Amino acid sequence: MIIKRNIPIYNISWLNHAKGGVIGVFYEPETKDELVDLCRSLYNEGKKFDLVGHTSNIYFLPNYSVDIMVSTRRVKEVEYQDNLIIADCGANVKALARAMVNEGIKGFEGLIDLPGTVAASVYGNASCYDCSINNMLVSFELLKENGDIIKLKPEDLKLIKRSSALKRGELRGVIISVTLRKEFGDAEQIRALADKNHATRTKKQPGSKDNLGSIYSESKCLSFLGVVFHIIAKSVNLLLKPVKQISTTKIILYIMGYKELIPYLWGWNRFIWKDEESHKLFWKYHQIHKKLFLDNEFEIEIKGNYVY
Known about the structure:
The chain is of the alpha/beta class. The protein is 29% helix and 19% strand. The protein has helices at residues 32-44, 93-103, 118-124, 187-204, 224-240, 248-256, 278-292; strands spanning 2-8, 22-28, 50-52, 58-60, 66-71, 78-80, 84-88, 127-128, 131-132, 137-143, 149-152, 174-181, 301-303. Helix 5 packs across helix 6 (248-256).
């Protein structure tokens, strides 16, 4: 068990510009047993704690501090059986996906660039290129607040897009391990599809630095105002076609008077925390998104309070 005290949140945050808060005590269990013993102890003592993995989907606001944080990122043993994978909660999705692709196991070819842990992927119902850890989920172990460990099935998660009963707070506890199904396929085809997905992601999305992936569960259903602005933006592009094409996102931001946001957005569903100014501009971006889109449910988790 690694224990650190009074450390800045930016020391463990996925984002480089996560200024602000402090973690009173930061625990890093190194085995599943250590994690179970620690969480049971904290539950028994009635102590609240944050549970994190790689934090690749968590936005810590500058004003956020926490007394106790438990990280699962060192609890990462994986057991490979003939038809099953039994992975500790902190197992890295990218590493697991690459290993399974190389073995010709179906369902992982879209996950080779997905950051985070297997438990976080189950919790958030993460998906990429029609692949999801939950598509292969057989069962998972959950440590409940009363200290019991129970085995649950995928249906217990009550999955909807990018969400689960755990994420919504309908089911509470700590995922200890997950059991996944192995389905063999054509290894050459699976590797080729994985390479294609990687190339597409590299071309169409920014790297993992300074961003948390998709901000919202959806950014597709336009409001009336959104439809109007998108029509205007497409009309502008038609006029510019002989010269240069500009993304509709940039055109709309410029028309609305928010050109300062242009360097921070990669499309409407990806925000880049490139500097300390990002923390203020993120909420301006959120207000604009609410005007242009009907769906504004956050996919990322936000720690801290912000009044806007």
